[in-house]
Amino acid sequence: MRPASVIAPLLAVAVIASSSVPLAAADDTSWDLELGAARLHELVPRLMDLAAHTDGLVALSVGDLRTGHAIAINGGVNLPAASTIKIPVMVEVFKQMGAGRFTDDRTVMLLDEDRDCGYGSLCDAPWGTEYRVGDLLARMIDVSDNTATNMLIRLVGRSSINATMSGLGLSQTRLGDSIRSDGDIRALRTSADDMLRLLSLIAARRVVDPQASDEMLALLAGQRHNTLLPAPLPKGVVVAHKTGTLHDTLNDVGIVELAGAPYVICAFSTHLDDLDNGERFIRRASLLTFESFRRTAIARADSNGRL
After folding, report:
1. Domain shared by 306 and 234, yes or no
2. Which of 47, 106, 145, 261 is the most exposed place for a label (fewest CB within 10 A)?
3. How far is 124 from 221, CA to CA, in rounded Å?
4. pTM (2 decimals)?
5. Exposed, middle or buried, 253 (CB in 10 Å: 0-12/13-18/19+)?
6. What angle do CA 209, 214, 217 make, to 5 degrees?
7. Cα separation of 2 and 214, whole Å?
8. What three-state secondary structure class fits 238?
9. Are residues 73 and 92 in the same domain?
10. Who contacts 136 (Cβ-Cβ below 8 Å, separation ≥6)?
């Protein structure tokens, strides 16, 4: 654990307010809105303490999808995105499909320039093999295949991805290169607040169109790397999420579909001496947040039962 004098400057004050992120429209009563805000307010010091006792630099943004309230610790800090950048790539693919430029049956040929062996099996596939866009999306999100990601980046264009993210209000998110595990992978940048905004828009079915948003949610819910945000939660709770890993970085961002109190949680950790420290931070933050929102869901259910 770092000395307190080192910890303090790295933790921006957590804030709680009506979020500027366009979360799912709230049709709740004033009581419900106040309840959601109060629960998040109670969560702040616990998350701050967790962050302060984690080595490296951490960031965390949490948003209530029913009320629009959000809290953040270092939420606006620009950080290595690692494979969470694959969500913006996915969004651009769906945007261009929605514009009629191609369908998910369109095939893309594997070129040598696409190969990245940091993660995924397509790195070893023969040159010239063709894959459907739909299959590449599943490989990119569900098993985090880097080569599949590069093929999709080549298809839609890196500049188009960056322009779309800027248009959605994501000021810290930028794809500075394709996925290059042996290169400057820190050129893939984002922030916890940016990912909170993007996932909130998807959850509200406001990215491309409702059908495209639903398909993106389904892809994220099919994620096979479930050792971070979902790990401490009860079985059966759907977490539509995407992880990201570098040699000193561990991230996970997702939508937790908790009945009565759905929420977004975006957890980042970097400059870690040991990835286990990032794992503990993300798992603990996930559990603390879930417990808080579960109490909110129970209170809402009890109130509705008395009406």
Report:
1. yes
2. 106
3. 27
4. 0.91
5. buried
6. 125
7. 42
8. coil
9. no
10. 108, 148, 151, 152
